[in-house]
Write a structure and sequence with these properties.
The protein is of the alpha/beta class. It has 10 helices and 9 strands. Strands 3-2-1-5-4-6-7-8-9 form a 9-stranded mixed β-sheet, sandwiched between helices. The longest helix has 15 residues, at 116-130. The protein is globular, with a radius of gyration of 18 Å.
């Protein structure tokens, strides 16, 4: 049996700690930049430097520099090959998204223990390595960005339900093309809670999103099944990626005293979702995010995206 003290310290050891460089919004070395990507950020953070929760929804238009000397699947935040930010422009409303041209708008919702910049940089890495060329919108909720901040982050997820729901509604009203929601870990819990909120208000999930891609969700299977029932019909393209050997989910499951999370238990995925089991993949740089940190899986996702998820 895993005790609570062991679990909390285990989560801390699984995450980034204070002695490891953390991502921030700072320019990269010009010599290291391959190209820049426009990224739109929606957030309920009071500011981008702390984990303080704001009362409202704030928009930013960013230009993120993609490093030239980077291994696919990695998100370096320091050194000559680090991601950087050339522009962080606060906005008073959702900016222009351009015209729909066959590529979906991708909404990214990050997981536990992320700075705001790390969340956006991971999204940028995903878009680069999979070949997502439509508008990219990162929803950045107030994570404590600490290995010991798991309970804070779960509370922040609950606090962010309305802001994310407002973000999705604003995007659906503005964007005429497909919308693909990609979420990781606790971010999946946030997406499901926000979609459930919208469904209760008369906005079915199929009116909001055309595809769902959930990466190693940190949700209790019973809770997930209730959320799915509350949503009713799901988009035809709804996928759960899981890894039964995910050590972070084993620890969070221990904290819940069940051991099981949707992202590490193959039989917990409802029939409405296609399940992709990545147990045993050995080339992932991050065991809790195999799909986006394994070059082997990224190559597969590029094919899936071009043929189906887009």
């Amino acid at each position: 049996m895993i005790g609570r003290r062991e679990t909390v310290f285990g989560l801390a050891s699984m995450g980034l700690t204070g002695c490891v460089p953390r991502g921030d919004f700072a320019p990269a070395s010009p010599a290291s930049v391959a190209r820049t990507r426009r990224m739109i950020m929606a957030t309920n953070r009071l500011n981008l430097e702390t984990a303080a929760r704001g009362d409202g929804l704030f928009w930013y238009d960013l230009s993120v520099s993609v490093p030239a000397n980077r291994t696919s699947g990695t998100v370096p935040v320091s050194g000559a090959s680090a991601f950087g930010t050339e522009r962080v422009l606060p906005l008073d409303r959702l900016p222009d998204l351009g015209a729909a041209n066959g590529e979906p708008l991708v909404v990214w919702v990050h997981g536990y223990n992320n700075t705001a910049a790390e969340a956006v940089y991971r999204h940028t890495q995903m878009a680069e390595d999979i070949g997502m060329n439509g508008p990219q919108v990162s929803f950045v909720w107030p994570s404590a960005a600490s290995g010991r901040g798991y309970l804070h982050d779960r509370d922040s997820v609950l606090d962010a339900r309305r802001p994310l729901a407002d973000t999705l509604l604003a995007l659906r009203r503005r964007w005429s093309g497909d919308i693909l929601i990609v979420a990781h870990s606790l971010g999946v819990f946030l997406v499901m809670e926000s979609l459930t909120r919208l469904a209760a208000q008369g906005f079915p999930v199929t009116d909001i999103a055309d595809g769902l891609l959930f990466l190693q969700p940190d949700i209790d299977p019973d809770v997930f099944h209730e959320q799915v029932q509350d949503l009713g019909q799901l988009p035809a393209r709804s996928v759960v990626v899981l890894a039964e050997d995910d050590p972070a989910l084993r620890i969070s499951g221990g904290l819940a005293q069940t051991g099981a999370r949707v992202g590490n238990t193959s039989h917990s995925v409802p029939d409405a979702f296609e399940a992709i089991n990545l147990t045993g993949v050995r080339d992932a740089a991050t065991s809790h995010l195999v799909a986006l940190s394994s070059q082997q899986v990224l190559a597969f996702l590029r094919q899936v995206y071009r043929s189906g998820l887009r």
